[in-house]
Amino acid sequence: MNSISYNSVLIHVGSAYLAANLVVPDAPKGLVIFSHATGSGRLTQKNRYLAEMLNKQGMATLLADLLTEDEDSHHNRYDITLLTKRLIAITKWAAAQPYLKGLNHYYFGEGIGATAALQAAAELKQYIGALVLRGGRTDLAIGAIPQITSPTLLIVGTWDLPVFAANQSAFKSLTCPKKIEIVEGASHRFEEPGKLDLVANLAAKWFVNSQFSDAVSLRA
What we know:
Helix content is 34%, strand content 25%.
């Protein structure tokens, strides 16, 4: 069995120190950076489970909070500009780490975090190898969507009606390689039995198949 290294790190961004969990298997196929708009998302069982599933597929994962615990408020969770800047800074931090050198970077966003992932990917363009957005608030990133060049997978549940409609609209506006997976009987959080497993498998397949795309290694 391949060995896996686990690290808890603090990423210095401006005046903030953002907590993160970094997991790197032997010979990783790429680095998946999670984007969730909270001050403790790295600790949630759901995100940790998804990361573990990706690790088993040979992907390194970085679960970094975009907000500190003190910043974690309803207002800041919807501050798309702040979240996007933090995600870009985290991505550049990862690119500067010697043990992650040369890895393609991928974004896995959910909810408002997916909005930040879209905005960051629109700015970084070819430096992001692929995106997977689960229950993403794509309606808050309308201006960024046509600028996305990275292969993008949208995953949305049929019971998540407002987000379902927004993702269908976003899919039509994307001009990059794209796919939408509509999960029957899934709500916004995909908490129904078996749905999170399906999300993890879809995401892993998308990232692995995108590892030989035209992404360029980012240099901080």
